Amino acid sequence: MTEHGGTLAQPDGIPYLAGMGWDSILGHEREVEKLRYGCAAGRLAHAYAFVGTAGIGKYRFARYFAQCLLCERHTDAELQACGECPSCQQVQAHTHPDLLVVQLPEDKRELPIRLFIGEDESRGKEGLCYDISRKPMSARRRVAIIDSAETMNEESSNALLKTLEEPPPNSVMILVASSADALLSTIRSRCQILVFQPLSTELVRELMVQEGLTTNVGEAAQVAPFCDGSLQIARQLLDPQIRALRNELFNLLAAHPFLSVQTAERMIECLEPAGAEKRSQREYAGWIVRFCVEFYRRALLTVAGAPAHQVGDVPQVRAFVQRLGIVTYTTIDALTELLERSLAAEIHLSANTGIALCFETFFDDIGKILRQPTA
Ligand SMILES: [Zn+2]
Asked: Taking the domain 239-371, which CATH number applies?
C-alpha cells in the first residue's frame, strides 16, 4: 500500500482523468511552462512545494507531474507521460509501487506522524519517510506527494524535514499546500516553490457544469464570480444552506439602522447547523466574514460606477447604496473602511480568535463606522 491517509478522491474536487496530458490541466498553463522549462534545463529539484488556494487543481497537477517522472517512455527533460506504459497505467490506477501519497485522513485535522514514520511499534520502519528512502521497485525513482501539507503538525513537519535535509537518491517529493507561509520556513527553503494562480471566473463557470457541480448554466454563471477562482468554493456556494446564510446576512447588513448586537447574535446562532465541531464552525464563520467582504466590495464597486457585470445585481446591496444618497469622498472612505474592517475580521478568524468575540467586536465596529455622520 503506497497511498496513505484519506480517500483517493480528489481533495480539491477536481476528478482525476485517466490518460490525460498537460493539455487537460486547465488554467495552469504558466505553471506547466515553468516546470517544463526547469526540467528541460536539467534542473529537476528533490522537492517541490505547489502552493495556492484550495480547489484549483494543484493535486491533480502533482499527480500528472509524478506520472511524467515515472513514465517509462519519456525522459525527465521531455516531461511527458505516454499514458500507456505499465508505469503510467499503474499511476492512473493508484497502484504504482513507487508513487507514495499521503493525504489528510477524513476524520483528522492534521497529517498524523504515523503517516511519515509509522506507528509507535514500528517507528522508522514504515511511513512515507521510510518508504521514500528505499530503492525504487520498478521505476527510475520514487515520487512522494504530500497533500494538504499545510496541515502537518510540528512532529510531522520535523520528521519530513529530516528527509528533506538529506533527500534520498532517486527521489522527488511534492508538497501540495494552500500557501507557502503555512509551511515551516525550514521546509520551505528546501523546496522549489511553484505558486498556482486561481482559475479564471470563466473557467470556474465552465468547470462547474463540466464536472457536474450543477446542471444549471444560469446558476453557474451567477455563482462563478464569487468563487475566488476555486472549485471548492463553488461547491460550497452551491449548498442551499450557505446561500440562505448569505441572503440573511445581506438583509442584516442592508438594514437601516444597522443593528450590531442583533446581527452578531444572529450570526452566532447561524453557526449551529455546522455542529459542535470547532473546525466546521470556523469554516462557517469564515463564510459569514467572506460574505461581508463581498457585500461591501460590491457596494464600493457600485458607488465607484463599475460596470454592471462586475457589480452584479444584489437587491440588498442596491438598497444599501441607494440610502447612502449622494456619493462623496467621505462615502467612499467609509465604504473602504467597512471593507478593510471585514478583511481584518477574516484575518482575526484565521488566527484562532474566539468566534463569538470576533463577531461581537467586528459588527460593533461596522455599526460605529456606519454611524459616522458622513457614512
Ligand atoms: Zn508512460
From this structure: 1.20.272
Nearest CA to 168 among 129, 113, 126? 129
Cα of 69 from ligand 1 centre, angstroms: 9
Q: How close is the Cα of 8 to the center of ligand 1, in Å?
A: 21
How many A from CA of 364 to the centre of ligand 1?
59
**d(CA 68, ligand 1 centre) in Å:** 7
From ligand 1's centre to the CA of 87, what distance in Å?
6
- pTM, full prediction: 0.74
CA 52 – ligand 1 centroid, Å: 28
Q: Where would I find the H helices in the chain?
A: 29-40, 58-70, 86-92, 114-117, 128-133, 154-165, 185-188, 201-210, 217-223, 231-237, 240-254, 260-269, 278-303, 308-311, 315-323, 329-350, 355-371
pLDDT at 6 over 50: no
Residues 28/57, Cβ–Cβ less than 8 Å? yes
Residue ranges of domains in the chain? 3-195, 200-232, 239-371
* The one-letter amino acid at 103: Q
Range 3-195: architecture per CATH: 3-Layer(aba) Sandwich (3.40)
Q: Is 151 a residue whose pLDDT tops 80?
A: yes
Q: How far is the CA of 211 from the centre of ligand 1 (A)?
A: 26
**How many angstroms separate the Cα of 139 from the Cα of each of 48, 59, 66, 221, 276?**
19, 21, 11, 44, 47
Is the peptide bond preceding residue 11 cis, with omega within 30 degrees of 0?
no
